[in-house]
Amino acid sequence: MRYVKPTRFSYLPKPLDRLDFIGLFECDPFGNWLLFRRIIIAAVGWFTYFRYTTVNRIKIEGTEHLENLPINNVLFLSNHQTYFADVIAFFHVFCAVKWGFKDTILPPMYLLAPRARQYYVAASETMQKGILAKIFALGGALTIERSWRADGREVQRSVDTSAVDKIQVALKHGWVVSFPQGTTKPFAPIRKGTAHLIMANDPIVIPVVINGFRRAFDKKGLRFKKRNTQLSIRFKAPLVIGPSESVEEIVEKVRKAIEQDIPGRMDWVQGKEG
C-alpha cells in the first residue's frame, strides 16, 4: 500500500486549528462537521443496536484484521444484501474496534464516542428516498449516479466521473465501504470501476462477507422480515494485489474474496477446461 498522510480539516483558520485538540471544529474534506456526524452515527447506532443483538443475533469474525489499520486509505469491499442494514452494522463494528472490542459489539459504550472518519458508497437515488435515508446520508454517504441501473431498471447513461473523485478524497481522509457489485442481487458481476479505484489509490483492501441480512430485513434494511435470524459479518485478511495485475485479474480476486462465485460455476469452468 502506498502511504497517504492523513489530512486534518478544520473550520478554524491556520494556525488556530492546532488549538482544537478535541476536534470540536474539525470537518471532513467535503465540509461536513465531524462532531455532527458523530452525533448522527451515535443516534442511529442507539436506535438500531437492538436489531442486531436482541431482535436478531450477530456473529462477527476477523476484527483482528482491523486492529492495526491506518486511519485512512482503507477500502472495505463486501457483498450487499440491503440498502442500509449492512452499512449500519459495519459502522457499529468500526466504532467498537476503535474502543478495543474484538468480534463483538456488546456492550454499546463505543457509541459514546463513535468513529467519524468512515464513509460508504451509495446510489444517489437510494439516499433521496425518505427522511430516514437522508439522515443516514449525513453519516458519511458518498453518493454516486449509477450508469447501469436506476429505480430498479437497467439503464445506459454516462459514467459519473465525479464518483471516483469523491471516493479518492474520502480514502485520503478515512475508511470507505464499497459494494463492488453495485446491487443487492446475489452473484452479480463485480464492476470494473472497483479495480480501477484500487489501481489508482493502492489502498489496503479488506474483503468482507456478510450473510443473514436479506432474511432478517426488507430490501431497504429498515423493516424486519424475520426475527431471531443469525446475522454474520466476516472480515478477511487484506487482499494482496500486485502492481502488474490487470483489471480482469483484480476483478476475479475481489469476486472470490467476497465469495460471489455463482454456485456450480467452478464445476462448469473445470468441465469446460477438461
Automatic annotation (TrEMBL):
Against InterPro entries, the record matches this protein to: Plipid/glycerol_acylTrfase
Q: Which UniProt keywords apply?
A: Acyltransferase, Transferase
Q: In which pathway does it act?
A: Lipid metabolism
SUPFAM superfamilies assigned to the protein according to its UniProt record, in alphabetical order: Glycerol-3-phosphate (1)-acyltransferase (SSF69593)
Keyword Transferase among record annotations: yes
**Where does the Phospholipid/glycerol acyltransferase domain lie?**
74-213
GO MF terms held by the record: acyltransferase activity
Domain of life of the native organism: Bacteria
Query: Know the name of this protein?
Result: 1-acyl-sn-glycerol-3-phosphate acyltransferase
Q: Which organism is it from?
A: Fibrivirga algicola
